[in-house]
Amino acid sequence: MPPARISSFDDWVDLSRVWRNDIGVNYAEIEDYQFEAGQPKLYVPDLKFNRHIGEFANQRYTATGELLGAEKFAEYMKEMLPQAEDIKLVNESQATEAKWVGQKGSME
Q1: What is the pTM of this model?
Q2: For the purposes of burial, counting CB atoms within 10 Å of the CB of 99, is it exposed (0-12), middle (13-18) or buried (19 or more)?
Q3: Fewer CB atoms < 10 Å away: N or C end of the chain?
Q4: H and E: helices and strands count for the chain
Q5: What is the Cα Rg of the chain in Å?
């Protein structure tokens, strides 16, 4: 696909349509897809959460900006951030799965 200049939302929509066709999107498989009701809404964590620099560095704030005590915060962080077993699972998957993400700088 040749490089395109995107100067409007319509340009983006058109280019996106071309790209989806180029990669072979099967519209029949996705046209009726519905997100399941009851799924948690995604949100951006509060600026105070998990900070290592600045005004809120090393303070125990939740992703919604609530200040917690040390014991509750330790348990909370186990639920919010990847733990050793999560990282191990990802590393194992990356080692055994097909290389669907190329190396940095690779265009093959």
Answers
A1: 0.50
A2: exposed
A3: C
A4: 4, 0
A5: 21
State how far Cα 15 lies from the chain centre: 23
Sketch the domain layout of the chain as residue ranges: 1-35, 46-96
Q: Which amino acid is at 38?
A: G
Strand partners, 52: none
Helix/strand/coil (H/E/C) assignment for every residue in 55-73: CCCCCCECCCCCECCHHHH
- Distance (Å, rounded) from C-alpha 7 to C-alpha 3? 13
Q: Map tokens 């996106």 to a residue.
A: 16
How does 32-69 read in b/e, with b if 16+ C-beta sit within 10 Å?
Answer: eeeeeeeeeeeeeeeebbbeeeeebeeebbbeeeeeee
